[in-house]
Amino acid sequence: MPYGGNELTYASPNIEDYTLDHIRYVHLDKGQRGHLVPTQRLGALELLHMVLIQLDIPSLTAFRRVNRRATSIVDLVPQYKAITTHAPVTLWGIFTIGTGRWISCQDLYEKLSTAECESCGDFGGYLYLITCCRVCFLCFTVKADYLPLRQADATRKFGLDRSHLENLPTMKTVPGYYSPREIKLRDRLTLVDYRAARRTGIAIHGSESKMNEHSVHIQAKKLEKYNLRRSKHTAGAANPNPRRPRTEDEFDGYSSNPKRFVAIVRAPFLNPGATSLEWGFHCSACRSHHYNRPLHWRRKFTKDSLKAHIEECGEIVDGKHVRQQLI
């Protein structure tokens, strides 16, 4: 049986992850104005395409809407055409959560044309749309880099103030159900990219240790003020009790934390050498809910990476990995 065949692999577990792309979305405008072949030169078309793909997503879309000629020119950009044809939900997600100013058409196309998770190298079946990263399930549900923070938490954790957040990648959540536990988010929250906020904090304070010291110092001062106000508060007074400042991170919950799913969409690998999209597949021998690498049941593979997995863990016999005994 060839790699990728039904006996060795299966497409997906019988579970829904409820990422952003499960939210119902309207279809993108794919050029309802109609196409016009450009009748005059705007410089070499290839050069113009090279310029256009470097634009951030909102700027490219704004140019496309200028007139029918601009629509035709953008729709002829190979990278843009590949995205709208094979992964339109990625554009919808970027527009919906408002992260397009930090992502160019070229950035998005390159991530769609890359198979590996940026953190671990496994097949990454998802995109993290705040900063456009290719990720796998095991990384985006565990690593801090893919847990966007409330603005108040970002300022507290990394010793920032509101002015520092103005130019950092942020998003607006879409109300809906998220994570395999289908936890509902009701409000549109503004969340900040963890990695960008952390880098900014380190840059401002000079080092990670100094950043942490500053954060602890500020939290101690806020807690001291809170205790002072609370001690002066009279029982039964009209004013409510002062609110205790948060000094610890929210409970994470990892794969059940809806904030880990609000910027995630499933995304195929646009393999230039393949005739169809690659969504990855799971190893049938790891299906028995193993929870540790290299046998974790959530890992996904391509044909090439499955070969490496079998070399590492053993051939699949009767639905299990079997290592050959050396004689």
From TrEMBL:
Highest taxon of source? Eukaryota
Segments carrying the region annotation (Disordered) are 230-254
User: What is this protein called in UniProt?
Assistant: F-box domain-containing protein
